[in-house]
Specification:
The chain is of the alpha+beta class. The chain is 46% helix and 12% strand. It has one domain. The N and C termini lie far apart (33 Å).
């Protein structure tokens, strides 16, 4: 995947999380992209909701007709 495409997809993912998850968290949530990593500042419940969204997106990719590369396991760190 080209760097420009990767950057665009990360921007889309950040916007999705900001619009679909962040407004419904009990505490404030900050979402940023750093290269191919997500930097999320939220409480534990916020991290769990983001993990659900990412899982749904991965599951959707698994059902696509084109073969996909295996996704790297990315554990979300617990909120401090």
């Amino acid at each position: 995947m080209t760097e420009q495409t990767r950057s665009g997809r990360m921007s889309e993912l950040v916007l999705l999380i900001e619009n679909a998850v962040a407004p419904y968290t009990a505490t404030g949530m900050s979402v940023r992209a750093f290269d191919t990593k997500l930097i999320i500042t939220a409480d534990e419940a916020g991290h769990q909701e983001v993990a659900k969204v990412i899982k749904m997106l991965r599951d959707k990719d698994d059902t696509s007709p084109e073969p996909q590369k295996p996704a790297k396991s990315t554990a979300l760190p617990a909120a401090p």
